[in-house]
Amino acid sequence: MKLRQLLEGVPLAGGNLNQDMEINSISYDSREIRPGALFLALPGSGTDGHRYIGQALERGAAAVLCQRPPEGPGPWLVTEDSRLALALVSANWFGRPGEGMTLLAVTGTNGKTTTTSLLKELLEGALHTKVGLVGTNRNMIGGLELPASRTTPDSYELQALLRRMADAGCTHVVMEVSSHALVQRRTAGLTFQAGVFTNLSQDHLDYHHTMEEYRAAKGLLFDQCRRAVLNLDDEAGRWYQSRVSCPVFTYSENRAGADLSARNIRLFPSHVEFEALAPGALTRIHLPIPGGFSIYNALAALSAGLALGLGLEDMARVLRTVKGVKGRVEVVPVPRAFTVIIDYAHSPNALENILMTARTFTANRLICLFGCGGDRDRSKRPVMGAVVKELADLAVVTSDNPRSESPEGIIAEILPGMEGEGAQVHVEPDRREAIRWALSQGRPGDVIVLAGKGHETYQEINGLRRHLDEREVVAGWFAARKPSRAAALGIGGAAP
User: Fold this and answer.
1) How many CA atoms lie within 13 A of 147 on its CB side?
2) Which of 68, 309, 314, 428: CA 20 to 30 A from 496?
3) Is residue 351 located within the same domain as residue 434?
């Protein structure tokens, strides 16, 4: 592809290259450069691509796009924002696949994964079409599931994925869009038919520093949307409503004047029911996912569907048969008279939601195992501890993904929030051992919540990902306690 074609729409601030040269690949990793490539030097907190311009040229880069060019002449072009440039160049490289599909985005602290999953099923069920999904725990092209490494891929990987979706016949794409992705311009150049906001609560303050910065980062999404779908029960949703420039569709459980609202809500251990009220339409909703917060996820998905012109009755029919998402209020089968739930809750608000949900069907004690991630927002650690102390009967404090931090050091910052009356507290830094201990405490009627890992099947410790699937740990614990065949026949003892 001609360099001129790659640079279409990219704002340039300097450089003088022959833009008719042929470019045979693009990369922002100097180690992957091949002769004839365009190298994009990206600034970063951990490393800076500008340090590797020389290495890229040695490996045969034909041109360099950067924010800070080296001294002297060279094959470089200058742009004010390399990350924006990468997004636009990537879109051009893959033929702007997003322009041929209807794109929908979901942002917010909690609920993104479930809302996108619900919306995908709504679109497929109501429109009988193929839908792509970009998300935290998986990417999907129709029924084909692909691995995901982060909530929103970097722009090159995102455009490559959109290209695969378009080529496979997807007409719609639903994607989770994180605040990091918006600040880093990973979705730049895409236009979303609707952008959905779920909620805003404390998280990622290691990156955004203040809740005001965090709110502003989420709000960047609506600059790329034809319509904003906002939760009016959240303060940030009302803040966006008064500031976005695109048309707004609103949803709410308890505020008059919302475009879609829920009333006559009923909560059950296995599902929720409510009446969805929209102008000129009233429909009973049955959602086979428990928890009061599931109502908000359903309202968000229904609102996006209504914004696209889908019928409320058609969507209600589809919602009756939707499946839950792995690691979101996931009930693990166990051979005992207590319940084990795995949930991704890793913020104070998410912990509160899952524990309040679990409490509704807890006959005896509510046990919560949790930790906090290393190298992330430290200020939420005692807050999460306080939530569990207040809402659980027994708290097991352990590791999440400690990353480069000491598990014991992270726990030491959780525990100040757990002082005073409330749940009993047990500390075990080793997560496997902590799960086994929690299971050993289970009594009939108890509910044990394993919070924080959800869909993840690893722990990140000292820069390495080590296999840890909580479902396997639970199954292994029970398997070790099955009576032996000999014991069952009365000729021996039981297994330990």
Assistant:
1) 3
2) 428
3) yes
